Task: inverse folding
């Protein structure tokens, strides 16, 4: 099994000669061999190519050639981003409407990881086109949770969350349109960053909803995510929303202190109250005490227009997803899974007025949120109201977007702010719970600084499922 | 099933030459009904703030 569960630890071992890239890749592949039959994390693996790349990385290191900040680190890619190694399925029998399925070229994010020296082990499982639901009838892997395989890994970056959790990869790419990096990160007990909208290019990513889609990292820790973000961020003219000169800058502060940082807490316990895990509020309280001990000041805030923004997120997602899939739905209706075709086709029933009203609410909330950030530096909310649900309890025959558990993430896709999900404890069922730390747009480093400080005094991100050998 | 909603969903899909089987149309109506509740919240919020040009 993989001995090093974090990128930071593995890089230190590589640099000191304690381990080679080949050994890291072999350990990651052995971990995948051992557990993936239960997890369904990988759709495709590139073992031979990965081992060749690892040998090349070791030769370069021996020759003193610095490849990049992820030199020799094994990573995985959600199977909705294209790679040169093999086809992209989007976990669907329906070919991508834009022709990405057979395109053997690296998405910009993948290319940037590879240029920094990362080694791509394989394509990781997702929900169909990042919007479907777990489907036992599907011919694709059922993404299961490493903490309890009867539970869902979360989605739609399902395999990215579970593979990082067990150490089958040390970092992974995910995408997030409403929750899809932060939910699997929360459910699998790892760290996941939805960067500021426009910071990481989406070129080579199959769209779900173009004004909500984000590409970002999942890894063990905030510091690992920071390493990946430094590689991933930057303008790409092929993505019309990619920001040319982002106002983001600086490094994460590694003082381990948060003195003078004002954090607004909205527990969102007025939403989905009956379905929240009874351990969640205590876990959030404990996390706030940890942040206070680090020097932060915690003040109450209320997210403006929360109900309306959440509703508007659904309208925009469905409308934009239908726009992308409308021709394919007509031609391949029966080849989409039931949940996917029902959810996406709901977009056909929405009017232009519905869509425009949803965008107006989005702008109202964005303006109001700027006011909130004049009072606080960061905001904290739970990521979800519960831990990972049992797959047997998930019934989505009507294609409803209601996941049967409260999810507090889509608000930030609408506003575009950076949000990192970090584990904060265990549910009454013994599976991970998480909070998200949110900052102003392009203050991704502030968000990661707070997450890193929190993780410097807590061990939840290092608490591993039994499948991965228990605690580090 | 609400025939008005059913007609709306069927006609909306037919505009794109999509004609799901009857049992799936029923499920599609339920999915749309679920979304309509949220659209109601959106409209209420906008109507409550008529003075803001956005």
Result:
């Amino acid at each position: 099994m993989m001995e090093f569960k974090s990128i930071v630890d593995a890089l230190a071992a590589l640099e000191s000669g304690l381990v080679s890239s080949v050994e890291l890749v072999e350990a990651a592949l052995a971990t995948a061999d051992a557990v993936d039959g239960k997890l369904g994390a990988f759709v495709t693996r590139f073992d031979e190519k990965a081992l060749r790349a690892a040998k090349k990385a070791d030769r370069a290191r021996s020759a003193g050639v610095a490849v990049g900040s992820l030199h020799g680190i094994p990573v995985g890619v959600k199977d909705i981003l294209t790679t040169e190694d093999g086809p992209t399925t989007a976990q669907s029998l329906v070919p991508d409407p834009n022709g990405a399925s057979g395109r053997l070229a690296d998405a910009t994010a993948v290319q940037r990881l590879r240029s920094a020296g990362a080694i791509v082990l394989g394509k990781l499982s997702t929900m169909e086109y990042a919007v479907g639901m777990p489907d036992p009838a599907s011919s694709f892997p059922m993404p299961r949770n490493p903490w309890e395989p009867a539970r869902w890994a979360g989605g739609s970056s399902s395999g990215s969350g579970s593979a990082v959790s067990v150490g089958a990869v040390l970092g992974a790419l995910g995408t997030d349109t409403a929750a899809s990096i932060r939910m699997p990160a929360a459910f699998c007990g790892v760290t996941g960053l939805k960067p500021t909208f426009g910071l990481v290019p989406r070129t080579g990513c199959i769209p779900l909803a173009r004004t909500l889609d984000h590409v970002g990292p999942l890894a063990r820790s905030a510091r690992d995510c920071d390493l990946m973000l430094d590689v991933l961020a930057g303008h790409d003219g092929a993505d019309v929303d990619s920001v040319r000169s982002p106002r983001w800058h600086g490094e994460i502060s590694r003082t381990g202190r948060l003195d003078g940082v004002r954090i607004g807490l909205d527990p969102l316990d007025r939403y989905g109250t009956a379905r929240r895990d009874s351990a969640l509020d205590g876990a959030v309280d404990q996390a706030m005490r940890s942040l206070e001990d680090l020097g932060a000041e915690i003040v109450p805030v209320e997210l403006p227009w929360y109900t309306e923004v959440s509703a508007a997120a659904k309208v925009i997602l469905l409308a934009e997803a239908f726009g992308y899939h409308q021709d394919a739905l007509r031609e391949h209706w029966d080849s989409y899974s039931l949940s996917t075709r029902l959810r996406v086709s709901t977009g056909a029933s929405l009017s232009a007025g519905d869509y425009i009203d949803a965008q107006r609410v989005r702008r109202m909330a964005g303006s109001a949120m700027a006011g909130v950030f004049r009072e606080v530096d960061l905001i904290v909310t739970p990521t979800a109201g519960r831990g990972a649900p049992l797959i047997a309890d998930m019934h989505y025959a009507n294609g409803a977007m209601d996941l049967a558990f409260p999810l507090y993430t889509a608000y930030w896709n609408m506003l575009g702010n950076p949000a990192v999900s970090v584990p904060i404890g265990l549910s009454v069922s013994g599976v991970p719970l998480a909070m998200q730390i949110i900052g102003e747009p392009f203050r991704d480093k502030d968000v990661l600084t707070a997450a890193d400080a929190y993780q410097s005094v807590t061990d939840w991100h290092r608490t591993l499922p039994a499948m991965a050998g228990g605690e580090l | 099933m609400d025939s008005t909603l059913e007609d709306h969903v069927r006609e909306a899909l037919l505009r794109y030459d999509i004609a799901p089987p009857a049992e799936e149309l029923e499920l599609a109506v339920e999915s749309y009904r679920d979304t309509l509740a949220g659209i109601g919240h959106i409209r209420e919020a906008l109507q409550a703030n008529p003075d803001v040009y956005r």
Summary: Chain B touches chain A through 29 residues (CB under 8 Å).
